[in-house]
UniProtKB/TrEMBL annotation:
The lineage of its organism: Eukaryota, Metazoa, Chordata, Craniata, Vertebrata. Signal peptide: none annotated. The gene is CNTLN. This is Centlein. Gene3D superfamilies: 1.10.287.1490. GO terms for cellular component: centriole; centrosome. InterPro entries: CNTLN (IPR038810). It comes from Anas platyrhynchos platyrhynchos (Northern mallard). It comes from the Eukaryota.
């Protein structure tokens, strides 16, 4: 980038020199033509010196005007360049002020970053110590985990043995279950037979209870008839003095009543 700028500046300078040389060549060419024209006039047999002097004065006046115009152009160019340089200087001064402000901001940022770096460095040291402690704890934890894993492996072996025993027991129980189901099937058949027998027995008991109820009713009627007869006999024999025969009849009646009562109880049960 710097080399390109230098080359551009060199080209601009060479172009200015080339324009200056072209203008100088043009002036020299004009002077040459004027001198040649003047020399031709002076070579006449009767030259007009007044006109020649007038031409020389006019030529010098033109050259002075051209020179003045050139000086004016140069001065105007210088003024323009000075104005441009002043503007550039003002811009550069503003850039310098901006750079100063940026430098102040950068210095403040650097101070802040240094402070932050110091804090981070301290935090790093703290974290390093914490990491060291963590690594030590991790090593201890790893050792504990190895012991726990070892214990778990031993416990796992015991559990595997226990599982094998339980599987054997389960197989035995399954065999027992098959046997029990077989036995249960026979027991169920016997139970069904017993239930059928019980049902038949209950039906028979219902019939017996019905018969006992009928007999009890008949017995009650007979007892009532017997009681009535006894009362009638007692009334008829009150006037008689056959006490012994009356006692014998009463005893016989009581024995018959006891017999009927016993029969009734047997039927009910």
């Amino acid at each position: 980038m710097a080399s390109e700028h230098a080359a551009a500046s060199r080209v601009a300078l060479l172009e200015d020199e080339l324009r200056g040389l072209a203008e100088e060549l043009s002036r020299c060419q004009a002077d040459k033509e004027f001198v040649w024209s003047l020399w031709k006039r002076l070579q006449l047999s009767n030259p007009d010196l007044t006109q020649a002097v007038s031409l020389v004065v006019q030529r010098e006046k033109q050259k002075a005007e051209v020179k003045d115009r050139k000086v004016l152009e140069i001065l105007q160019a210088k003024d323009s360049k000075i104005e441009t340089l002043e503007q550039r200087l003002s811009g550069q001064q503003q850039e310098i002020n901006d750079l100063i402000q940026r430098k102040i901001a950068v210095d403040e940022e650097n101070a802040r970053l240094k402070n932050e770096f110091s804090n981070l460095n301290q935090k790093f040291k703290d974290k390093s110590e914490e990491l060291k402690d963590t690594e030590e704890c991790a090593q201890k934890k790893e050792e504990q985990n190895r012991l726990v894993i070892k214990n778990l492996e031993e416990e796992n072996k015991g559990l595997n043995t226990r599982c094998a025993d339980l599987l054997n027991d389960l197989e035995k129980l399954r065999k027992q279950e098959v046997q029990w189901k077989t036995e249960k099937s026979g027991s169920d058949a016997r139970i069904k037979n017993l239930e059928a027998d019980i049902t038949d027995t209950r039906e028979q008991m219902k019939e017996l209870n019905s018969k006992c109820s009928n007999l009890s009713s008949q017995l009650a009627v007979k007892q009532e008839e017997l009681s009535q007869k006894e009362r009638d006999m007692t009334r008829t024999k009150e006037q008689e003095k056959w006490h012994s025969e009356g006692d014998v009849d009463v005893a016989s009646s009581k024995d018959f009543g006891v017999y009927l009562t016993t029969l009734n109880c047997a039927c009910v049960s």
